[in-house]
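Re: folding output
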Amino acid sequence: MREGRRGNSFIADNRLKLAARPEDIRILEDGKVSTPERSFGVDSSRILEEVMKVSPRNPEIDSLLKRLSELIDLEETQAARKLLAELETKLGPSDPEVTGANTLINLLESTR
């Protein structure tokens, strides 16, 4: 990992588990330095959420995913399909959230 501009954090992710030991990670917060309790074998999105306390997703995408979940819960499959198509364009068809939502919508449609 290379040093970036002050105030920036970088995580490179190849979808493999993080191989950094907790003692190799430094968290700078409120002028104090600490290390996470665990990191070895944890995926980068969990590091972002648990260690850095940020969402691994863009807020706009996060909002769309929440709305999609609401539509599925309400069994509004037509509206969910429309929103799913938008998300699939942005995230790709193999994104876990996209494939999971598609499976749920298919299940709802097959039980009607």
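--- second protein (sequence, then structure) ---
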Amino acid sequence: MLRPQDLQIDAVKTLGSALFLTDITPVFKKENGKPTDEKELEGYRYVVASELRGLEKIGVKISGHQQIEKPEGLEKVVFEGLTLTAYVIDGKLIVSAAATGIALKNKPSETKVT
């Protein structure tokens, strides 16, 4: 049977190409869905607002170190390896997002981390 997480969602058609960074938060490792006592850092969640979706927000998780600083005001960003995954939890459809990299759209050479 096909499961929601088996779907391959086109991120650009779903979110558009105009994504504005609104926040950056740390992501800590979890065991069995609960945070560990050590507060071990797993990566960062970059919260973006999609112009195509009326500025609806979605958090995009990137493992590892923080790749860019939060800019003053809204700045357009571009992701490398952006994937969207659908899940059903308690009968509700949930969409999660992950990527391998992020850069400010207008200044990729200054902010892009490999």
